[in-house]
TrEMBL record:
Coiled coil: none annotated. It comes from Populibacterium corticicola. Signal peptide: none annotated. Residues 331-382 form the DprA winged helix domain. SUPFAM superfamilies: MCP/YpsA-like. This is DNA-processing protein DprA. It comes from the Bacteria. Residues 100-312 form the Smf/DprA SLOG domain. The lineage of its organism: Bacteria, Bacillati, Actinomycetota, Actinomycetes, Micrococcales. Belongs to the DprA/Smf family. Pfam families: DNA_processg_A, WHD_DprA.
């Protein structure tokens, strides 16, 4: 067996025998290497008294407490050790048309090193693994599962602007904002990555399985740090959030309730030193309460225009876009539907949605969606009497 195969199989063993974000396993693997760490575990067996003080010290777990932590971890790994069949895992990976990549591969996203001992030993990837290597040149778009029309409209605008700049869209494949971000990326033909909380064969939620397959077949990628057959569980969703944050150059929260899991993704990003952007919502919306909480309690930035998401990603040139009149003509700044709505608006006289439908020839749903986009860009404003163009 070649050295590369030995290390790859050992990394697969550690990915299967541990739960995501196992820092003790990460310390052991980083100090000994996956293959030597696997040999060490086999030699120790169930004899926790065989763990030497030198090993404990080497892992930075000095003292009696450190020894107990390592012994507990060994006992934890031993519950699965003899159930891991590497050949079967390889076979299942191949049947899925997937790959198992490790840090020495060209496709490995190097920014995962920022997770320290919490970094995965390897990743299962379905789709284009080269997209994963470039994930740092992009942003995570996350938010509420019960997304509102406002949240979905804003998500579409953000992803459209990212697509114009060739940025990768990373999310979790869930309902709501996640699914909207992936769908918009597919429509705009920009790369998108879905990070799964279960094995790479567990397309969850099942109702999004067609969407996830579309991501795989369209030049995007499905990614998981858990072995095939691993079921999505609450603890794995929470661990998955740190992976979304670490893969991305920045994280954007579009909508989030007060205790939303999206907030954990944002907090992981902040801990990693990644930029975080937040879309503010109506103060009456429970689906934006978590966004407002994040803005109050953290150094996250307010996103007030779609261009802000581009500015958030490191290495992007800052571009100032003025709404309404400016150095560029309206025809250069707005799409045809937006222009039709703008043509029906005035700066001084308020216009109702019904009047805009008549003036533009658009359906009410089209007018409302377009008004949301234009308001988010600062091109228009609303008061109690109706809609106006901004000054």
């Amino acid at each position: 067996m070649s050295g590369d195969t030995l290390e790859r199989d050992a990394a697969m063993f550690w990915a299967a025998v541990t739960e995501p974000n196992d820092h003790i396993a990460g310390l052991l693997v980083s100090h000994l290497g996956p293959a030597e760490a696997r040999k060490w575990l086999s030699a120790i067996g169930t004899r926790s008294d065989a763990i030497s003080d030198a090993t404990v010290d080497r892992l930075g777990l000095s003292g009696e407490m450190g020894a107990r932590r390592l012994a507990t971890a060994v006992a934890r790994w031993n519950t699965r050790r003899d159930t891991i069949d590497i050949q079967e895992l390889r076979r299942r990976t191949e049947l899925l048309g997937a790959r198992f990549i490790i840090p020495c591969d060209a496709e490995w996203p190097q920014q995962l090193a920022d997770l320290g001992p919490g970094a995965p030993s390897g990743l299962w990837v379905r789709g284009d693994a080269t997209v994963v290597a470039k994930s740092g040149y992009g942003a995570a778009i996350v938010g509420a599962r019960a997304a509102t029309a406002y949240g979905e409209t804003v998500t579409a605008m953000l992803v459209s602007r990212m697509a114009e700049r060739g940025l990768t869209v990373v999310s979790g494949g869930a309902f709501g904002i996640d699914a909207c971000a992936h769908q918009c990326a597919l429509r705009m033909q920009t790369p998108t990555i879905a990070v799964l909380a279960g094995g790479i064969d567990q397309l969850y939620p099942a109702a999004n399985s067609d969407l996830l397959r579309a991501i795989e077949s369209s030049g995007g990628a499905l990614v998981s740090e858990s072995a095939p057959g691993s079921t999505p569980m609450k603890s794995r969703f929470l661990s998955r959030n740190r992976l979304i944050a670490a893969l991305s150059g920045a994280t954007v929260v579009v909508e989030a309730a007060w205790r939303s899991g999206s907030l954990s993704t944002a907090n992981h990003a902040l801990e990693l030193g990644r930029p975080v952007g937040v879309v503010p919502g109506p103060i009456t919306s429970a689906q934006s309460a978590g966004c407002h909480r994040l803005l109050r309690e953290s150094p996250a930035e307010v996103l007030s225009t779609p261009e802000d998401v581009v500015d958030l990603v490191p290495g992007q040139p800052k571009v100032q876009v003025q709404a309404g009149s400016g150095s560029r003509s309206d025809a250069e700044q707005f799409d045809p539907m937006e222009l039709r709505v703008l043509d029906g608006l005035k700066r001084s006289t308020p216009v109702s949605v019904d009047d805009l439908c008549v003036a533009s020839g658009l359906a009410p749903a089209e007018v409302l969606m377009t008004l949301s986009r234009l308001e988010f860009r600062g091109a228009i404003r609303q008061d109690l009497r109706g809609w106006h163009r901004s000054r």
